[in-house]
Amino acid sequence: xxxxxxxxxxxxxxxxxxxxxxxxxxxxxxxxxxxxxxxxxxxxxxxxxxxxxxxxxxxxxxxxxxxxxxxxxxxxxxxxxxxxxxxxxxxxxxxxxxxxxxxxxxxxxxxxxxxxxxxxxxxxxxxxxxxxxxxxxxxxxxxxxxxxxxxxxxxxxxxxxxxxxxxxxxxxxxxxxxxxxxxxxxxxxxxxxxxxxxxxxxxxxxxxxxxxxxxxxxxxxxxxxxxxxxxxxxxxxxxxx
Length: 241
Ligand code: F6R
Prior knowledge:
The model has no long low-confidence stretch (mean pLDDT 97). The chain has helices spanning 9-26, 41-52, 80-87, 109-122, 159-165, 184-188, 203-211, and strands at 2-6, 31-34, 62-65, 67-69, 99-100, 128-131, 153-156, 178-181, 192-197, 229-234. Helix 1 crosses helix 2. The protein is α/β, with parallel strands linked by helices and 241 residues long. The structure holds fructose -6-phosphate. Residues 35-39, 66-67, 80, 132-134, 138-140 line the site of fructose -6-phosphate.
């Protein structure tokens, strides 16, 4: 696991964007695994600039997002599909048909999860996966548990995640209780992983992820076993390393 400590959020975002831009430039047909949340907003902004300046093109890039709330439509302002449209897809030259986010409204959850895995396999697997880090150590919506879930699945969100994400809703009551997420196995199958985290609120969980025991109670700790992971932090998030 490589760890890069950037001076600040802007520098963390640019450093991560450089890794993604280099992948896209090297392999214009590459398959990106993408995350939502506050942390990657700056990184997406940098990639949008790179694209508008003609440094990279998403024309032949495919994307698979980590997760989606169960029950939210793509047009719901807090859905992850909506987030991706506003922060990246609508702002670059990507073919909408090549963008994939789990369907929050699917009726047959198991079939939809199996199909998501199949689509990733058909695309040739994920070349580079972006991850944020939940305050409780979740990656995607793989919450602390007694074992690691391998494949894309339906998950119950923990109270801590509902509380953390309620900042984006009018109240905690409005946060969906369930989601669909790639499994830990899906994530670990990516050829490269980039995890970004910023702010002092992430310092404890960053230290547990990187230095603590590998345990499903800290899902991100499994990344210690991935052969090609880069963690990019700002100084505040790195404070307890
Ligand atoms: C979202 C996702 C989550 C977030 C995590 C951190 O697609 O996969 O695991 O990365 O909850 O969220 P922020 O960046 O808002 O702190």
